[in-house]
Amino acid sequence: MQRNRLKRRLREAVRQDVVPRLLEAKLWLDVLVRARREAYGAPYRELRDELSAWVGRRCSRASSSD
Asked: Which residues neighbour 4 within 8 Å (Cβ) at sequence distance 6 or greater?
């Protein structure tokens, strides 16, 4: 049950934050998210912030290589 809840939360964070930012940056990537054990106890906001920080780093690297 915890695993499914975490999967739903991560999927939603990716849908709301990661995909739109990657599309905006014109980055066509496959994204694989692997959760660590501590993610099971993390609040949704923390999961979303971590993914958002990752996509921010990825987008800034892509724009600096243009």
From this structure: none
